[in-house]
Amino acid sequence: IEEHTVLWAINGLAVAATPEIIRELAERADVSAVRLDATVVLAQPKVAAAAEPEWNLEMVGAPDLWASGHTGVGVVVAVLDSGVDVLHPDLADRYRGGDNSWFDPYGEHPTSPSDLAGHGTATMGVMVGRDAGGTDIGVAPLAQWIAVKIFDDRGNATATAIHLGFQWLLDPDGDPSTPD
Questions:
Q1: How confident is the model at residue 52 (pLDDT cuts 50, 70, 90)?
Q2: CA count, 13 A, side-chain hemisphere, 25
Q3: What are 135-169's pLDDT values in tens digits?
Q4: Strands (E), 24-179
Q5: Please, are residues 53 and 86 in contact by the beta-carbon 8 Å criterion?
Q6: Summary mean pLDDT of the chain
Q7: SS3 114
Q8: DSSP codes joined into one string, 70-90
Q9: Are 116 and 154 spatial neighbours (Cβ–Cβ below 8 Å)?
Q10: CA torsion sign, 145 to 150 to 154 to 155?
Q11: What's the rounded Cα separation, in Å, for the pair 137 and 129?
Q12: Cα–Cα nearest to 79, from 8, 139, 154
């Protein structure tokens, strides 16, 4: 086996090995399945006609929730996507920050959130975006955010990276003895 990654959230392993070793692993009684590490490609977003950003918030009743005091205060939300632009004016002040708020399983941007595709930034904007452009864009504008960059800089996501992202979300500080 050339390399391996423990995927404790699914009781599995990701391995790079010769075909002979893979066959040996598949024949073991304690191995239920062997699959190739699938790759998902990030779809390029379609450009839609300009619309008022609030229509989506009205559709889900966000203004009624805000009026009753539910604005996201004290809540942390996460996205697994192409990343998040930490400098985006609608998101920058909502980033939780610290060593346990950003995870890039590819190691391309290990220390600071980034998003070369823009998809994750748009998704996070729907969740917690503020009103820097003059209109509210997020359902929970006072919540904080953390993120996992499951798509690499070329727009590909492996099943292993996705599982590592889920594991990180379950334990972002890497210490199972602390509450996350």
A1: very low
A2: 16
A3: 888 999 999 999 999 999 999 999 999 999 999 99
A4: 39-41, 76-81, 102-103, 144-149, 156-158
A5: no
A6: 91
A7: coil
A8: -S-TT-EEEEEES---TT-TT
A9: no
A10: negative
A11: 5
A12: 139
Give the pLDDT score at 51.
Answer: 38
Dihedral sign, CA of 129, 84, 102, 169? positive
φ/ψ of residue 161, rounded to 5: -65, -40
Let me know how long the chain is: 180
Phi and psi of 16, rounded to 5°?
-115, 115
- Nearest CA among 2, 36, 35, 5 for reference residue 21: 2
Report strand pairing: 76-81 vs 12-16.
unpaired
Strand 76-81 with 144-149, pairing: parallel
8-state DSSP, 4 = E
Contact yes or no for 152/164 (Cβ under 8 A): no
> How far apart are alpha carbons 45 and 123 in whole angstroms?
11
Q: CB under 8 Å to 102, separation ≥6 — which residues?
A: 86, 111, 112, 113, 146, 147, 148, 149
Q: pTM for this structure? A: 0.84
In contact, 42 and 123? CB cutoff 8 Å? no
